[in-house]
Protein 1
Amino acid sequence: MRPERIVAALLLALGAVAAAQEQPPLTHGLTAVEPYPAPELVLEDMDDDAVDLASLRGNVVVINFWATWCPPCRREMPSLERMHQAIGAQGVSVLAVNVGEDFETVFGFLGAVDPSPTFPVLFDRDGAALQRWGVRGLPTTFIVDPAGRVVARAIGGREFDHPELMQRLSALAGN
């Protein structure tokens, strides 16, 4: 490779790092909504097994709609896993719904996430769940209470392992 191309590549990489550092911090707030029944959500996971939201009744469920091309989605994914590790045993489940991407793209991205997600990653290949849930932008997260009602949402990236957010989810789970 020619020296000027190497310099150009390094400048591009440094610019990307600087841009990433200039991003605003993720917030930790949730917007309460008038409770309503959660729409149906039955999607296949990474192993092609169907996961049904209804099977998680009795838990608080954090449903995160995301994509690998979405910068705030990429930034918040590790915090979802840290939150899952910290309070998952307290009756708080996570479902990450990837929108419109193929297995290889998602698998490649998840392999680079640290810590790597241990919660179900689901595929909304045709966008039907996105429409049913009324998602207008990514990331969008819904909080479903133990009775199966949507009680809060978050539009935009979140720091899910923030103590205040985790305390709110634990309290909703009855802890």
Protein 2
Amino acid sequence: MFTSIPSATLRQLVKLSQRKEALMAQIQNIDREMVRVQSKFGIPSRNPALRAPVTVSRPQPGRASPGRRAKRGALKEKIVRALRAAGSKGATIQELSGKLGVRTANLYVWFNGTGKNVPGLQKIGTAKYRLR
């Protein structure tokens, strides 16, 4: 295991380890001194039980995790399918966002760019689209 490490490197690691231990001892001495001063003046020490609770954010259901990417054209398929289901009355971006679980900003960008190249896609009002 240590046969492939040069002896100079091992010596350097030993020196660094000893230096680290000395610094750790100094930190412990400083901590003890701080506790002595705090108790002398009646300052309460930090109690780990009184720390603020840690909250964990959970992903919202129906939303894709940020690490995964959808297949190419997946958003287009979802939007076209939803607009077909909406029929001639169409659907607003807000409605599509709720149905598809996609942020409204992403839909605005999609309609402004890719949506212009989709045959049969028609804007019928403010942020409202349908398929002919």
Protein 3
Amino acid sequence: MGTLWIICGPAGVGKSTHARKKAAELAACLLDSDTVTEPVVRAGMRLGGEDPWDRDSAVYRAAFRVPVYECLFATAAENLPHTDVVLVGPFTSEIRSPEWLSELRARFGVEVKVIFVTCDEEERKRRIELRGNPRDELKVRDWEAYVASSDVRPPVFEYECLPNERLKS
């Protein structure tokens, strides 16, 4: 059985970059929430008459947040008998629950390790602007409001912290 690695943190801190490195280092299966579910989420939001890029709306949270994570977990479960899995997502609400880590360990029957990725707000904004993803337009347009609504606190249970430094331009 493999190990389940959860790479979490707020938008723009470098979760996907770190996860790609970790998956390569471990020769593990990489499951990034953006890559695995993004086209389906955009199609569903569009069909619902919503902005297909909005990941901060009540509609996205109500309709897609839980199914996106369940898709990742189901795919992880199929891979864990054969290899380590590196799973990437914000998991903002989940890391507020002291029981979440033990629940994941019980659910999958494997070791679960959490890496929380963080960086300062200035660097986070710079990274978000640099990546130019349409999902980030609303964040960048009103950065102060976005930051005020963002929960950037680390997990409430055992985790490894990866403070990302400034990316080279």
